[in-house]
C-alpha cells in the first residue's frame, strides 16, 4: 500500500516506535482481524491479533451486529446492526473507531441496509438495500450522507447484493441472485454495463446440479478476484450440498486456481490477508453433506504458496466475516496515511 509521510520526521518516528508499542501492546487499533461472533450469546463484533490471540469485543449490546469492515487506513470500522423491533426487521449501517468508540449511525431507513464495503478513497461506502422495493447496491458519501443508487435490477431477474470495491476504485463486484442461484457480476461506479464477471458459458444448472458463486473479493493489487463456488444436487424439497471450493481467477475472470481446501468443508466467506499472500476463510469442517443446523464455524488462515491451513479460532460458536488490515502504527502527520513499521525500518 502506498503511504504518504513527512520523511524528515521518519527518524524520530522510528525512535519512538518501540516505546509506543510497549505502552499499547493490546490496543484495539493494532488488532489485524475484525469479525463477528456468537461466542457471548449474541452477535457482536470482535478484534483479534493476526495469529488469533487476544480476542477483544468491540460491541456489547442487546442488538446484533454483523459484517464489520476496516476502513482502508485501519482507523475505522463500518458494520451493520439489526434494529429489529415490534414493527419488524430493520438493518442500518453504523461506523465506529477501531477501538469501538465514537460510534455513529450512517443510514436511517425502516428497510434493510447491510453488507457495507469501503471505497479505496475511504470517503465512500457501498451497501445493499431494499429501500426502493428490490435489493440493490447504493453508494454513500460518509461525510455528507449523499446517497445514490448504483444498480437497477429488474425484479423478475432477481436482485443485487454484497458489493466489493476494486482497489483502483473503478468497479464493484457484486452478487446477482436469481432463480438459478448466486452469481458474480461487475459494474463500474457510475452504474454502467452491469455484466457477468466470468467469461464464456456459465452453466448454473447442469442436469440435477445447481452451481452458485458468492463471497467475491478483489485481491489487494487488483490483479485477481477470489470467490466461493458451491454445488448442490438439486432437490426442491431438500437440496444436498455436494462440493464447495474457494477459487482465485485473474482480473479478467481467467486462469482459475482452486485452493487446497477440503471440498467436504462448508465455506461461508473469505478475505485476503498479508498483501495477498494469505487468505482468511470461514468454514465448518466436514459438514458439507450434513443437513442439520451447524452450530460452529471457525476462522482459518490459508497460505497460498504452501497450501498450509492454520486454524485461528476454535469455539463451539459461530465466527464469521473476518477482515484483515495491516498493523499500522499512528506515527504519521495529520491527514496522511500512517506509515508501516517495515517501511520505517527500510528508511533508517
What does this structure look like?
This protein is mainly beta. It has two domains: 1-30 and 334-348, no CATH class; 33-325, TolB, C-terminal domain (Neuraminidase, 6 Propeller). Helices cover 6% and strands 42% of the residues. The protein contains two helices and 25 strands. The protein has a five-stranded antiparallel β-sheet with strand order 16-17-18-19-20, with no helix packed on it. It has a four-stranded antiparallel β-sheet with strand order 3-2-1-25, with no helix packed on it. A four-stranded antiparallel β-sheet has the order 4-5-6-7, with no helix packed on it. Strand 13 (171-178) and strand 14 form a beta hairpin. The longest helix has 14 residues, at 10-23. The protein is globular, with a radius of gyration of 20 Å. Mean pLDDT is 82; it is low at 1-31 and 329-348.
Describe the secondary-structure layout.
Elements: H1 10-23, E1 33-37, E2 44-48, E3 56-57, E4 64-70, E5 76-82, E6 91-97, E7 104-105, E8 113-118, E9 124-129, E10 136-141, E11 147-149, E12 159-165, E13 171-178, E14 181-188, E15 195-196, E16 205-206, E17 209-218, E18 224-233, E19 240-250, E20 257-258, E21 266-273, E22 278-284, E23 298-303, E24 309-311, E25 319-324, H2 341-347
Antiparallel strand pairs: 1-2, 1-25, 2-3, 4-5, 5-6, 6-7, 8-9, 9-10, 10-11, 12-13, 13-14, 14-15, 16-17, 17-18, 18-19, 19-20, 21-22, 22-23, 23-24
Amino acid at each position: 500500500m502506498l503511504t504518504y509521510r513527512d520523511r524528515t520526521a521518519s527518524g524520530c518516528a522510528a525512535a519512538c516506535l518501540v516505546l509506543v508499542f510497549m505502552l499499547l501492546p493490546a490496543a484495539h487499533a493494532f488488532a489485524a482481524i475484525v469479525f463477528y461472533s456468537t461466542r457471548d450469546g449474541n452477535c457482536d463484533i470482535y478484534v483479534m491479533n493476526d495469529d488469533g490471540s487476544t480476542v477483544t469485543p468491540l460491541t456489547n449490546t442487546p442488538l446484533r451486529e454483523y459484517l464489520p469492515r476496516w476502513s482502508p487506513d485501519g482507523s475505522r470500522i463500518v458494520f451493520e446492526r439489526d434494529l429489529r423491533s415490534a414493527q419488524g426487521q430493520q438493518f442500518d449501517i453504523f461506523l465506529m473507531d477501531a477501538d469501538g468508540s465514537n460510534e455513529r449511525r450512517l443510514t436511517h431507513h425502516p428497510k434493510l441496509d447491510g453488507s457495507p464495503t469501503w471505497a479505496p478513497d475511504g470517503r465512500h461506502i457501498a451497501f445493499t438495500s431494499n429501500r426502493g422495493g428490490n435489493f440493490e447496491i447504493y453508494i454513500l458519501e460518509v461525510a455528507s450522507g449523499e446517497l445514490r443508487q448504483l444498480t437497477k435490477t429488474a425484479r423478475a431477474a432477481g436482485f443485487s447484493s454484497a458489493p466489493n470495491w476494486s482497489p483502483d476504485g473503478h468497479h464493484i463486484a457484486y452478487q446477482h441472485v436469481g432463480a438459478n442461484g448466486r452469481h458474480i457480476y461487475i459494474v463500474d461506479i457510475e452504474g454502467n454495463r452491469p455484466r457477468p464477471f466470468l467469461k464464456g458459458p456459465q452453466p448454473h444448472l447442469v442436469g440435477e446440479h445447481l452451481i452458485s458463486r458468492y463471497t467475491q473479493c478483489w485481491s489487494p493489487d487488483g490483479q485477481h478476484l477470489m470467490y466461493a463456488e458451491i454445488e448442490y444436487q438439486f432437490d426442491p424439497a431438500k437440496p444436498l450440498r455436494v462440493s464447495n471450493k474457494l477459487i482465485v481467477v485473474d482480473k479478467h475472470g481467467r486462469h482459475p486456481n482452486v485452493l487446497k481446501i477440503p471440498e467436504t468443508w462448508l465455506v461461508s466467506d473469505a478475505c485476503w490477508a498479508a498483501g495477498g499472500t494469505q487468505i482468511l476463510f470461514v468454514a465448518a469442517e466436514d459438514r458439507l453433506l450434513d443437513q442439520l443446523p451447524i452450530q460452529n464455524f471457525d476462522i482459518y488462515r490459508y497460505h497460498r504458496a504452501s497450501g498450509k491451513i492454520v486454524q485461528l479460532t476454535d469455539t463451539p460458536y459461530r465466527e464469521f466475516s473476518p477482515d484483515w488490515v495491516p498493523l499500522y502504527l499512528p506515527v504519521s502527520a495529520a491527514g496522511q496515511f500512517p506509515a508501516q513499521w517495515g517501511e520505517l525500518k527500510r528508511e533508517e
